[in-house]
Amino acid sequence: MAKRHGIDLGKMRELHERERADFLARRPRARALAGQSAGHLLFGVPLHWMDDWPTPSPLFVAEAQGAQLTDVDGHRYVDFCLGDTGAMFGHSPAPVAAAIARESARGLTAMLPGEDALWVAEALAQRFGLPVWQFALSASDANRFAIRWARAATGRDQILVFNGCYHGTVDDVFVDLKEGQAKPRASLLGQVYPLTEHTRVVEFNDLAALERALSDGRVACVLAEPAMTNIGMVLPDPDYWQQAQAIIRRHGSLLLLDETHTISCGPGGFTALHGLRPDLLVLGKPLAGGLPAAAYGFSAELAARAQQAKRDAPAGHSGIGTTLSANRLSCAAMRANLAEVMTDDAYQIMFERAAQLERGLRELFVRFDLPWCVTRLGARCEFQFVPRLPRNGSEAAAEQDAELEQSIHLYLLNRGLLITPFHNMLLLSPHTTAQDVDRLLAVFDQWLRAVRMA
After folding, report:
1. Is the per-residue pLDDT at 1 higher than 70?
2. How far is Cα 335 from Cα 339, in angstroms, rounded to an integer?
3. Long-range contacts of residues 248-252, Cβ cutoff 8 Å, at least 24 apart
4. How does strand 3-4 pair with strand 7-8?
5. Stretch (H or E) spanning 222
6. Cys-Cys link to 257, which of 120, 278, 305, 414 (CB 3.0-4.6 A)?
């Protein structure tokens, strides 16, 4: 009898085939739209990542509100994916929707500053402790621009990332560690220049490797999530960032933190919660309630160096920024979201629901005698098919199981529960109820009963 991670593979595969057939049978409208889309959208979807869900045909959404989605066939779902963090505070928060409606009649973009931009910068400075800010349309752009400022300010050409990282579509970060050597990520499409000429990669939580990689003084910045969230969850060792920051500063490099996902830790993210002192910080997807927007902050010292670098450069385009960055609509949405949605009270609800989910998952795995672990980062939970938490990207990747994940995800989806498609990440919004969490745990229990070893 074939088994993996405590699961009967034969039972799981038979169940999964029935779930695929059920999905198709109950969604005729979605199947019709998929047929139409095939001729006009690459892979039949407007963004090819939308084809990564575990469904045999794309799931077309009709509307989303709070923690609920409704598809074009009328099926309702409790959403634990929340646009992979873009809708972390719920779909269409009322204050954000009102700000968008109001501002859309007053001018969408002007390439000139408005009062909302200043308000947002001041609010971000208060939350994160970085006094100076700039805006972008996505965390990908913000990371890209922050790297340029770091290189311009330091005069150095290298950056360092951690193995298994994800920082959007920045070319420089698609480098993995394979048998001790930096290699371009195998899945990267269309790359024509060698990334390893300007990017170094080490394992997370390895202080000695970080020290060695920075020792020649060529690294402009270390780009990191404070806790890794895109290779499965990988938390820092208790004293890791205290020592890592000292190493980074000793070698004259800058620390660039990407809080796009770890903003789940609280209003000031992991940075404020743990007293970190980055030189640069990026915040993306959830900042404007799901509208495209991002921001990146500078320490006072780095802001001065960056401004001097721009003054010293020849006149012309810096290669930093896009015309629609800091447009009036996104600034209004960011202000409303920060002022009325990303509040301490909202986070408290999210933390309570996430703690409920964490306890429930642990109890499930104990009851079924499964060697699986659960990690929580504020409002974000992850379960992984290993007995103890991985310490780096290699350990996390080694135990990922796409077939097992897809079976779980489709079973949940067919019963009105949506979780992040790329691994086993679950996000709790202020609109997620205790009943929603109980329902997810009950359905997961049903799946385990159906596929566990006899």
Report:
1. no
2. 6
3. 248/210, 248/214, 248/222, 251/211, 251/214, 251/215, 251/217, 251/219, 252/154, 252/217
4. antiparallel
5. strand 219-224
6. 278
Q: What is the mean pLDDT of the chain?
A: 95
- How far apart are alpha carbons 102 and 98 in whole angstroms? 6
For 295-330, the pLDDT digits (tens) are 999 999 999 999 999 999 998 889 899 999 999 999
Rounded to 5 degrees, φ, ψ at 450 are: -75, -25
User: What residue type is 28 in one-letter code?
Assistant: P
Task: Kindly report, residue by residue over 114-133, the tens digit of the pLDDT.
Answer: 999 999 999 999 999 999 99
Q: Residue 323 has what pLDDT?
A: 94
**Which residue's structure tokens are 């930096």?**
182
Kindly list the strands in the beta sheet with 380-384, ordered across the sheet, starting from the edge strand earlier in the chain. 373-377, 380-384, 425-427
- The residue among 281, 48, 23 whose CA lies nearest residue 142 is 281
Closest by Cα among 115, 96, 121 to 328: 115
DSSP readout, 118-137? HHHHHHHHHHHS--EEEEES
Q: Is the pTM of this model over 0.70?
A: yes
Residue 243: phi and psi, rounded to 5, are -75, -40
Question: CB-side exposure of 306: number of CA atoms within 13 Å?
Answer: 23
Which residue has 């579509």 as its token pair? 169
Distances from the Cα of 40 to the Cαs of 50, 57, 303, in angstroms? Answer: 15, 16, 45
- Both tokens of 357, joined, read 């989910």
Determine the 3-state secondary structure of 176 from DSSP: strand
Specify the pLDDT at position 422: 84
Supply the pLDDT for residue 454. Answer: 63
